[in-house]
Design a protein that fits this description.
This protein is α+β, with helices and mostly antiparallel strands. The protein has helices at about 1-20, 25-55, 60-70; strands at about 75-85, 90-100. It has three helices and two strands, in the order αααββ. Strands 1-2 form a two-stranded antiparallel ribbon.
């Protein structure tokens, strides 16, 4: 990983010097921004590799599972009815059950 980092740093230096010339403040700021972005990418890669080693889902899968944990927007409605008849009286009942 050290060789990749060195190559990226040298590429950033060459790019910044060729693009900005001798304006040193802009040159240093551009290199700093490039190195910051490279560092963030390495951290993201490390987090993804660590999650994979512990058998956890990827970040995409974790976000999808989080959204699936919410109740449904349009839950299924379930209907139930019951009839009962006894010799002296009769009864009828109806109910609706909604999940969520």
């Amino acid at each position: 990983m050290g060789l990749v980092t060195t190559a990226m740093n040298l590429t950033a230096l060459i790019y910044a010097y060729g693009f900005f010339g001798s304006d040193h403040e802009t040159w240093v700021r551009a290199i700093g921004a490039a190195l910051q972005c490279i560092g963030v990418m390495f951290v993201m890669q490390g987090v993804l590799m660590t999650r994979a080693q512990f058998g956890l889902p990827s970040l995409h899968g974790a976000v999808l599972n989080w959204f699936r944990s919410f109740p449904a927007v349009f839950p299924k409605t379930r209907y139930a009815s019951m009839d009962a008849a006894l010799s002296p009286a009769t009864a009828f009942g109806m109910g609706t059950v909604r999940q969520g």
